[in-house]
Each structure stands twice: as structure tokens, then as C-alpha cells.
Amino acid sequence: DEAKKMGVDIMALAGQRQRYGYFGFETGGYSLCYTVSDNNIRHCYGDVDCSDITLRQIGELQDAEVDRLLSLYEANPIHTIRKREEFVNQMSAWGRKCRIIYKSDELIGYVCGDFEEVVLKDDSCFPVALKAIFAADGKSCAVINVHPYQKSRIHLGYGNSRHLREHKRE
């Protein structure tokens, strides 16, 4: 009822979907779910250079950094309403580890949790960010959700088609 009063057109919830049915919510939409392994990273993104990527924990942020992160977030075609003063706390809610992603000292995005929320200035940076995060965390496997509007991430588990073809020829 509150959302309707605020003029909200759509709400997206995560968690136990069946529980939300009691409140009138219905299942809608879809997302793709990928299991990406260190082998995918090695084979598909082996030639991707991530040496200029730096990950920094979200702690005390400069105002300009908060503004930049919020503007990147709000640039997504589908996003929730997050007030600026609550933005950083919401990103790290439920004990999620959140990091800012820098490329050559330029803030290009952030990652929250275990790839639960990955927001980038330019989605073409996704492979390099993904490889850097795997390397920094020593990951062997991760589950990554991709929304339908994130078209450039659809081939996530394989790299882009150029990488896939190059790998198959080797």
C-alpha cells in the first residue's frame, strides 16, 4: 500500500519468494544465473590484463565518490530508490563486503557481496573486473546473476565470442 501511494510501478524482492505471496506479490521477470569457475576465467579471459584494476573496501568515502557510485547505480535502467545518505549502508547491508573498482586510478564501479551487485561505468569492463575480483579473492567459483538488460554479460561464462573462438582454436 505504501509503494502504491508513492507511485512505485514495480518492486523487486530477493529472498524466499513464496513468503512474499502472502503480501500480494507475484513472480515476474527473469534473470540468468551463471556459475563461473576459475577455469572459465583462465580459459576465456586469460589474455585480459587486469593489472590496472584496484579494489578498495568501502569505508570512509569522499563525497565525490559517493556521488559517483550513486550516479552509476541510478544509470541502470532498472534500480531501486536509494537515498544518498543511506546508499553506502544499503550497499553493505547484511554484512555484504562491498568494494569500489578503480581502473588506472579512475573509479569505474563497485561490487557488493559475492557478485550480488556489480555496477560499472562501462559494461565492457566486466571481464577485466571479474578477473581482478577472482584474483583478489582467490575464488575458485562464483554464482553470478545477469539481468536481461545486461546484454553484454550474457556470454559471461564463456567470455565474449572472440575469446571463445580463440580458446577453441588453441
Structure description:
- The protein is an alpha+beta fold and 170 residues long.
- The model is unreliable at 157-170 (pLDDT under 50).
- The chain has seven helices and six strands.
- The radius of gyration is 17 Å and the shape is globular.
- The termini are far apart.
- A hairpin with a 4-residue loop joins strand 4 (106-112) and strand 5 (117-120).
- It has helices at 2-6, 17-20, 38-44, 63-74, 84-91, 126-137, 161-169; strands at 32-37, 53-57, 98-103, 106-112, 117-120, 141-146.
Mean pLDDT: 82
Sheet with the most strands, sense and barrel status: 4 strands, antiparallel
Low-confidence stretches: 157-170
* Order of H and E elements: HHEHEHHEEEHEH
Number of strands: 6
Shape: globular
Number of helices: 7
Q: Using only CA atoms, what is the Rg?
A: 17 Å
Structural class: alpha+beta
Strand content: 15-25%
Oligomer description: single chain
How far is it from the N-terminal to the C-terminal residue, by CA? 58 Å
Percent of residues in helices comes to 25-40%
Strand sequence of the main sheet, in spatial order?
Answer: 2-3-4-5
